[in-house]
Structures are given as structure tokens and as C-alpha cells.
Amino acid sequence: MMLVDEKARQLLADAELIVPADVLTSTIHGMAQAITAELSNQYPLVLSVMSGAIVFTGQILPLLNFPLDFDYLHVTRYNRALQGGSIQWEALPRTDLTGRVVLVLDDVLDEGLTLAAIRQRLMEAGAKAFYSAVLVDKLIDREKPVYADFVGISLPDRYIFGYGMDVQGIWRNLPAIYAMKA
Ligand SMILES: O=P(O)(O)OC[C@H]1O[C@H](OP(=O)(O)OP(=O)(O)O)[C@H](O)[C@@H]1O
Ligand SMILES: Nc1nc2[nH]cnc2c(=O)[nH]1
């Protein structure tokens, strides 16, 4: 345990703060306004993608002042790795999706494979319309299979962590976004 603790602290000491907490707060307020303008009369089902979206979800939900349902799904393809692998479904929403307008909340849109798989699964399960909101869109040099309807911040293609996102499984609890030193 001591080794893990020291390694975790070293990872943070070696990282660079790239999005401070106050910038995240104002970004999320802006996103909430845009989402409200588009979806406030549609009684959406808001779905949080565990685990990375936990902090973003907890911050944005109280800013969405209109009727909605909330549930979660759990999908992962990075696990503790820095590179993505194949999609693993851990949990599907329990709410009936038939005819629903869904809004998926995720922390980061990177290669887009995760969000594309989620969209396909939810549409197959009967959703009427699919919207997505991502706190971070990574600027990668390839086309993505899906783009988000609501984007908080665009960031360069570096591995990021904090604010729900992990590095080797740790530091999801940080109140800001950090990047591994290039
Ligand atoms: O656009 P992509 O390249 O597919 O990557 C984006 C996905 O990667 C992260 O999840 P991860 O698999 O790390 O699971 P976690 O949320 O539990 O950390 C993130 O939360 C997104 O869901
Ligand atoms: N924690 C974390 N998860 C990711 N999933 C896809 N890209 C990233 C990233 O940069 N950081």
C-alpha cells in the first residue's frame, strides 16, 4: 500500500495542471445553459457513463432545472491502461428506453469508440433521439465515429486525469484536470 501511495503522489507531482477547477466550473455552467436551451421541454433520460463521468455528472445535474429522469450505464475500454482496448459492458441502464430522448454524459471523447458503441446500444434499445455531452473533446488527428452535441473544452491529445478521470486507476478525486508531462 505504501508503494501505491508513493507512486500515486509521484504521478501527480510529475503532472501538469491543464484545466483549473474554476475554469471547469464555468465551462459546466455554459454547457448546462446550452443543454437547457435544447432539451428543457423534452423530458430527457440523462445517462451518466460510469466511472469517469461521476464528477461531471454530479456538477452538471443540479444546473439542469427542468424535468428529467436519471440513470447510469457502465462501459469501459481503458481499464487502468493508457491505451484503449475493446469495449466491455459492465451495466446497462435499467430504465426503459423506448421512445425516450436520451442525453449521455461522459467525461472525455477521445477516439469516440466508446460513445459510438453507447449510441448504437441505446438506439437499438428503442431510444427516440440521442444527445451527448462531453466535458472534454480530445483533438486527435483522425475522424471520430461520433461527435458530441455539447462539448465543454477541447484539449490536445495527451493523457489526462482528475475530475473523474483516472491515471492507472487512481486520482479520479482531483478537483482539476492534469496531463502527464509530455
Ligand atoms: O473515446 P474513447 O477513446 O472510446 O474513450 C473515451 C472513454 O474512455 C474513458 O472511459 P474508460 O474506458 O477509461 O473507463 P472509466 O470511465 O471507468 O475510466 C472515458 O470515460 C470515455 O468513456
Ligand atoms: N483518464 C483518461 N481516460 C481516457 N479515456 C480516453 N482518453 C482518456 C484520457 O486521456 N484519460
Fold and architecture overview:
- The protein has a single domain, classed as Rossmann fold (3-Layer(aba) Sandwich).
- It is globular.
- With 182 residues, the chain is of the alpha/beta class.
- It contains 4 helices and 9 strands.
- Helix 4 links the parallel strand 5 and strand 6.
- The two termini are 28 Å apart.
- Bound molecules: 1-O-pyrophosphono-5-O-phosphono-alpha-D-ribofuranose and guanine.
- The site of 1-O-pyrophosphono-5-O-phosphono-alpha-D-ribofuranose has 18 residues, from strand 5 and helix 4.
- The site of guanine has 8 residues, from strand 8.
Write the layout of secondary structure elements.
Elements (H helix, E strand, L loop, with lengths): L1 H12 L1 E5 L1 H19 L5 E6 L3 H7 L8 E8 L11 E4 L9 E9 L3 H12 L4 E11 L10 E7 L3 E2 L15 E4 L2
The structure holds 1-O-pyrophosphono-5-O-phosphono-alpha-D-ribofuranose and guanine.
Guanine binds next to strand 8.
